[in-house]
Specification:
Blueprint: H1 20-24, H2 32-46, H3 57-72, H4 74-83, H5 85-89, H6 102-108, E1 118-120, H7 123-130, E2 137-142, H8 147-162, E3 168-173, H9 178-184, E4 191-195, E5 203-204, H10 211-221, E6 226-228, H11 231-239, E7 248-253, H12 262-271, E8 277-282, E9 295-300, E10 311-314, H13 319-329, E11 334-335, H14 338-350, E12 357-363, H15 368-376, E13 384-390, H16 395-400, E14 408-412, E15 418-420, H17 427-439, E16 443-445, H18 448-455, E17 463-469, H19 474-487, E18 496-501, H20 506-511, E19 519-524, E20 527-531, H21 537-548, E21 553-555, H22 560-563, E22 572-578, H23 583-599, E23 605-611, H24 616-621, E24 629-633, E25 644-645, H25 652-660, E26 668-669, H26 672-680, E27 687-692, H27 697-712, E28 718-723, H28 728-733, E29 741-746, E30 751-755, H29 765-784
Parallel strand pairs: 1-3, 2-3, 6-8, 7-8, 11-13, 12-13, 16-18, 17-18, 21-23, 22-23, 26-28, 27-28
Antiparallel strand pairs: 2-4, 4-5, 7-9, 9-10, 12-14, 14-15, 17-19, 19-20, 22-24, 24-25, 27-29, 29-30
Helix pairs in contact: 2-3, 19-21, 23-25, 25-27, 27-29
Length: 785
């Protein structure tokens, strides 16, 4: 039976006038699973196949599909949350949308969403949780349109249940997240990949996709150690003479004992990894007369355990039952007092790199509900101390730390910083927060006193990147991990990272005019710079580096007319007139920095920006009425009368290409005659020729950098271009086999030097300059020798 796919192509207007979250009936903090479930519910009731009497059914459903496509992807969702539809659509308001048939959404959509043991992964989840993970993963890359995938589904669900806690079982819908599947190289469905610990690439499962074959594949690869217990060790263990730092679970086997089979032993060992060790006693080799035949395992306490006597598990034959009973025997997580907390923080401050961080659960009443979570955490995260603090007993410390719900999880980091988790309270999210937070030693949840001291510049030696946020704000919660990532790139001596919870410090936020969340800024001495770019770690790093060592010149009322408006300028000025609140301006900012970096070696070109909110007099006098407004003041112009306004795409490549068209040194376009006469038969001039094709993307990216290189090498090398679509014969005679090809012709050495076109896609002007100078210097030095 063939599945019908209906594809609708529709030109959408710039705005539906409807909020995407409201359209799908979602709250703004909805997770990916909730988004899929909400869309599925809408799809099976509002699909055009089910509403043939509604002439607007197609248009309505495209709206729902568009909302889902934007919100399902973390990157586009982030842009939508920050900038609305304009941030998602950019300058292109023509979107092509397609959707599947009714039966697809009814039967195939979100195949594993209702299975708690299976983690449905998207691109971000895959890179953050699977790659280089401390846990083993097995992932099913499937298509909901694939019959074999549906045949595998019940098998995959059973495997997930039977391996729960042993490894992580995941699923990726390649119809829904095709870009991730394409990146990994998935070419057929279903594809099963096994990821060992700390791996970047999965091992492909190639056998028959049956339950037993898959289970055998996994079990063969689980790397666990089960110690074979000798008679002496066993006797000493039972007497408490054998001292072990970690507790041990011993399987009792042989001689009328119903033993867990080898696979079950491996599963239990993997589930309890990092919590305790496991061993096996073979009663055929060791006298087990003192052990009941109903005993399947024995818990041997470690020397730090409060119980010294072995604990016998009788008539326990199910894996989950045994694991639960073992966890019950483990010591309760350490109770921490307010004075303990202060002592731990002081120790961490004084021993920055020699102490493990602490994950602390703040609670009220009885802690039994989450004690099991704390006990299981060592099986997921390493090198972290675990504790719990009763806020009923120690309300002062909890109030000071801004604990406002229970349970709440916080991390004390090496170096003394403290940070609270605002995410979900399930074990995997807690572990992920703890790992990332402890790594980010330089991110501090700020107290009121510290915030005020920073804002009042009481210590001008410190630079702070401050994030003002609210825990209920989804973009804020998405931004916090990006801040942690960015902090890893900077030492405290350069910049500190601080977070301010505006639900806790509402008066401070109001007094300092924080109007929206998240708001981020860099406070460096007497200067405060607003962070307005898309809120990613890469952009934070770029912003801080740019603020400390700027490449874009910041013009204001004090210097604008003195340096730009002077007579007969020998400098080409390109200025971005912007407003901090303008979404397109914020999107332009990182691209504008890239423009400045590409052109920074040319002394006669200045890339600048003017904040029109802070310098409204300049923008008003220049007639700037919309933002961003990019203007070029050419070399040789007098005053500000001669100006060219840029109206093209706002990516760095396009803008650099436009600017370089105004540079004084021009590139010569060669034809078949001039190529022979000027280049091939040259007796004195050194030529660098760009052999290109107009349709070649790499050629288009190289073009502005080639123009810049011509300015840098002026007087040493002449620059030219040849369009190989027009002059194929001449390009072939020059040995051009790929585009772009840069060939340096040096008549002194009667030879040419060719740079492989494949390498040129990422070339900058500086790299071209370096390659040419290296070649010339080598040849001339060689001749002299």
């Amino acid at each position: 039976m063939f599945t019908k796919i209906l594809i609708i192509l529709l030109v959408l207007s710039p705005s539906f006038g409807e909020d995407y979250y409201e359209l799908l009936g979602l709250k703004r903090n909805a997770d990916q699973k909730s988004i899929r479930q909400a869309f599925k519910k809408i799809a099976v009731t509002h699909h055009p196949d089910k509403n043939n009497d509604d002439p607007d059914a197609h248009i309505k459903f495209v709206k729902y599909t568009t909302a889902y496509e934007i919100l399902k992807d973390p990157e586009t969702r982030k842009k939508y949350d920050l900038y609305g539809e304009e941030g998602v659509n950019g300058n292109n308001n023509n979107r092509q949308q397609n959707y599947h048939s009714y039966s697809y959404y009814q039967n195939n959509f979100g195949m594993y969403d209702d299975d708690p043991e299976i983690v449905t992964l998207n691109r971000n989840d895959y890179h953050d949780n699977v790659i280089n993970s401390e846990k083993v993963w097995m992932i099913n890359f499937y298509s909901a349109m694939c019959g074999h995938c549906h045949h595998l589904a019940p098998i995959w669900r059973k495997i997930a249940k039977d391996l729960e806690g042993v490894i992580r079982i995941g699923a990726v819908n390649c119809e829904d997240d095709w870009s991730l599947c394409h990146e990994i190289g998935i070419q057929s469905y279903p594809t099963l990949l096994y990821y060992p610990k700390n791996s970047k690439h999965g091992i492909r499962f190639t056998s028959k996709k049956s339950y037993q074959e898959i289970m055998d594949f996994v079990m063969e690869r689980l790397d666990v150690n089960i110690e074979e217990i000798t008679s002496t060790v066993w006797k000493n263990s039972l007497k408490g003479i054998e001292k072990r730092e970690k507790s041990m679970l011993v399987f009792i086997c042989g001689d009328n004992h119903e033993c867990f089979d080898n696979d079950d032993q491996i599963k239990i060992t993997a589930t309890l990894e990092n919590i305790l060790t496991t061993g096996i006693v073979d009663c055929y080799k060791i006298n087990c007369n003192d052990i009941s035949s109903s005993t399947t395992a024995v818990f041997i306490p470690g020397f730090k355990h409060k119980t010294k006597n072995p604990i016998y598990f009788d008539n326990t034959y199910a894996i989950n039952d045994l694991v639960h009973q073992v966890l019950d025997q483990l010591p309760e997580p350490q109770e921490i007092t307010s004075s303990d907390f202060k002592d731990i923080q002081k120790t961490l401050e004084n021993n920055n790199d020699n102490e493990d961080g602490w994950l602390i659960c703040f609670y009220m009443g009885h802690a039994t509900e989450f004690d099991v979570q704390l006990k299981r955490l060592p099986s997921i995260i390493n090198d972290v101390n675990l504790g719990k603090l009763n806020c009923g007993k120690y309300s002062n410390i909890c109030r000071k730390l801004n604990i406002n719900r229970y349970p709440m999880w916080g991390v004390l980091k090496p170096g003394g910083a403290f940070e609270l988790s605002h995410g979900k309270d399930n074990i995997n999210d807690i572990a992920k927060f703890a790992e990332n937070s402890i790594k980010a030693k330089n991110v501090w949840a700020l107290t009121a006193d510290k915030i005020l001291s920073i804002l009042k510049r009481q210590n001008n030696n410190e630079a702070w990147f401050i994030d003002w946020y609210a825990p209920w704000c989804p973009p804020c919660i998405q931004f916090l991990p990006e801040i942690r990532k960015a902090s890893l790139e900077f030492d405290k001596s350069t910049v500190y990272f601080g977070t301010v919870d505006c639900t806790v410090h509402s008066n401070i936020c109001q007094n300092y005019n924080i109007r929206s969340y998240p708001t981020a800024m860099l406070i460096n001495g007497t200067t405060t710079s607003q962070f307005t770019a898309q809120k990613t770690a890469t952009n934070i790093i770029e912003f801080i580096n740019e603020s400390i060592n700027p490449t874009v010149i910041r013009l204001n009322s004090n210097n604008f007319y003195k340096i730009v408006g002077k007579k007969k300028t020998k400098t080409l000025w390109v200025i971005d007139y912007f407003a901090p609140w303008c979404g397109p301006c914020q999107q332009l900012a990182p691209e504008w920095i890239n423009v400045a970096k590409a052109l920074k070696k040319l002394p006669n070109i200045k890339i600048a920006s003017i904040d029109c909110e802070a310098n409204s007099d300049i923008c008003r006098s220049e007639g700037v009425k919309s933002y961003p407004n990019i203007r070029l003041y050419p070399i040789g112009s007098e005053g500000l009368d001669k100006v060219t306004i840029y109206n093209g795409p706002r990516d760095s490549t396009s803008m650099i290409k436009w600017i370089t068209e105004f540079l004084p040194i021009k590139i010569i376009d060669l034809n078949d005659n001039t190529l022979n006469k000027k280049v091939f038969n040259s007796k004195n001039d050194i030529w660098l020729v760009d052999f290109f094709a107009p349709w070649c993307g790499h050629c288009q990216k190289l073009e502005p950098h080639f123009n810049i290189a011509a300015q840098l090498l002026n007087g040493q090398v002449k620059f030219a271009r040849v369009n190989c679509d027009l002059y194929k014969y001449d390009c072939g005679r020059a040995g051009v086999r790929a585009y772009p090809s840069l060939i340096l012709y040096d008549p002194k050495n009667k030879k040419m030097n060719k740079i492989d076109g494949k390498l040129l896609s990422a070339f900058t002007a500086e790299q071209i300059e370096k390659q040419v100078l290296n070649h010339l210097n080598f040849n001339y030095d060689h001749d002299e020798l």
